[in-house]
Specification:
nine-stranded mixed sheet; 495 residues; alpha/beta; 22% strand; Spore Coat Polysaccharide Biosynthesis Protein SpsA, Chain A; Rossmann fold; binds magnesium ion
Length: 495
């Protein structure tokens, strides 16, 4: 006998996820590109559980919209209008008209699980609870069993030496047991206790010998309960198919990925040692045209990372090659002294006398005079190019102007846009360095430069949240645009 009915309790606000649930119900927050609800419905479909009832509450109409937009998932939606003043026991009772008289599966709407667990819980029709045997944490519901192997307690308070493991809050009820459970929910609510957890009704059924579930050992299965943003990041990792040993060429962004405000970010040095010891090739890729390759090599060496000059890829390099290809060697450089020196080594000299181009960089030594001079040449019809497109530069105290802010100023003043913008995401930045796109990966903190570059080059992309991009930004991406992996910092890539 198998169980083909299921109820999902997804009425709560999920306030511990902060901004992520300010305009989205928790069950539609994404893990590895897909809403939690989609993971659950796919897992159930793979286990032939085909009669699913969802109890929505907070932003229930968003769930209705999502179901309409995804008709491949057939599920019934019922709304708990009192979600603000009740808890999931009240929601569970709303399932009775649909699940009563059947054996059924019950789960919370904030647990991501794979098809393996769904198949385990669906293959049978007697009382059972999925348990991560041997695992423990303070936050979770833990279960204990009696000598006969039946679960007799479910509680957060159970000490580690007594707990069999953590409950996934994924239950199977036999037909009669389901009715006992609903009766118990009804009785407790009739007593005026509307704001209780399902576990209270369950424990009461255990105490009265009405339900005797057996544990389903789920320790080898993938599951994550989502309460906080850390849980989400952990779940992203568990449910993405990223394996660092699949790659041997690593293109790593600098600002916001390796360093921030001149300091190494967590895991940066250790990741370099790890990749070097495995014989992988590493390139440090930066759009920051305020410095030259040698400056970066020296700065990184002072921070404890040894990088060769040929392992540093700067946006200025492609720009210089472009100008040389057009026979241009004399330009007006709106950039730092270091950029002027770097370009000079690449055979492009700064001049204030009839330059062939205006070249704009990330000028941390910007003056009004430089801006005025550049505008005057542009007003005279001299074409201008920019070393990269970044609008802002990430710092620990928020964004500060980068080159994009400077070119915006030039454009507003002259009405002329740069004729070409180099650096990330322009595929020419890396294209010539990639040996095998299937074994190369870009790691960066920006979607519109780092990810766009990876996409243009046809390589995988790991997004670190240590710089500009937030988990909230990622949330708006479709599954096709989702990064191969999302990590809090490079530390997550260490073995
Ligand atoms: Mg960056």
């Amino acid at each position: 006998m198998t169980t083909t009915h299921a109820g999902i309790l997804a009425a709560g606000v999920g306030s511990r996820l902060g901004n992520l649930t300010s305009d989205t119900p928790k069950c539609l927050v994404k893990v590895a590109g897909k809403p939690i609800l989609q993971h659950q419905l796919e897992a159930f479909a793979n286990a032939d559980v085909d009669d699913v009832t969802i109890i929505g509450g907070y932003r229930s109409s968003d769930i209705a919209d999502w179901l309409s937009a995804n008709p491949q998932f057939r599920a019934r939606l019922v709304t708990n209008e009192d979600y603000e003043f009740t808890n999931n026991m009240y929601s569970a009772l709303l399932l009775r008209p649909y699940l009563g008289g059947h054996s059924f599966i019950l789960c919370n709407g904030d647990v991501v699980f794979g098809s393996g667990i769904a198949q385990l819980i669906a293959s049978g029709s007697k009382d059972a609870i999925a348990v991560d045997v041997g695992s423990f944490d303070e936050e979770s519901m833990k279960v204990t069993t009696d000598d006969a192997g039946h679960i007799v307690t479910i509680s957060k308070e159970t000490p580690p030496d007594q707990a069999l493991g953590r409950s996934l809050d994924l239950y199977r009820f036999g037909r009669d047991s389901g009715d006992h459970f609903f009766d118990e929910c009804e009785r407790i609510i009739a007593d005026g206790l509307r704001n209780q957890w399902t576990e209270v009704a369950l424990q009461s059924c255990f105490d009265r010998g009405l339900i005797k579930p057996r544990p389903i050992d789920s320790r080898d299965e993938q599951w994550v309960e989502i309460d906080t943003e850390d849980d989400l990041l952990h779940a992203d990792r568990v449910f993405s198919r990223f394996d660092i040993s699949d790659y041997d060429q690593f293109f790593i962004d600098l600002d916001g990925t390796l360093t921030l405000d001149g300091h190494l970010l967590p895991g940066a040095a250790a990741l370099f040692s790890q990749l070097r010891s495995e014989g992988s090739s590493i390139f440090v890729v930066s759009n920051n045209s305020s410095r030259g390759s040698a400056d970066y090599r020296d700065r990184l060496a002072r921070l404890g990372i040894e990088v060769g000059l040929d392992e540093i890829v700067l946006s200025t390099d492609g720009l210089a090659a472009y100008l040389r290809g057009r026979g241009v060697h004399e330009v007006y450089v709106l950039g730092t002294e270091a950029m002027r020196r770097h370009l000079e080594r690449l055979d492009i000299r700064h001049t204030t006398d009839h330059p062939a181009y205006v070249v704009v960089g990330y000028d941390t030594e910007l003056t009004y005079q430089k801006l005025a001079d550049a505008c005057i040449w542009i007003n005279h019809g001299v074409p201008y190019v920019a070393s990269h497109p970044d609008l802002t530069c990430p710092t620990g105290r928020g964004p500060i102007p980068d080159i994009g802010s400077i070119t915006a100023l030039l454009e507003i003043t002259t009405g002329v846009a740069p004729s070409k913008v180099f650096g990330k995401p322009n595929a020419s930045t890396l294209g010539h360095l990639i040996e095998d796109p299937s074994r190369a990966v870009m790691i960066g903190d920006r979607l519109y430069t780092d990810k766009a570059l990876a996409d243009d080059c046809g390589i995988d992309f790991v997004c670190t949240l240590s710089g500009e991009t937030t988990r909230n930004d990622i949330e708006s991406l479709s599954v096709d645009d989702w990064p191969t992996l999302v990590i809090p910092s490079l530390e997550s890539l260490l073995r």
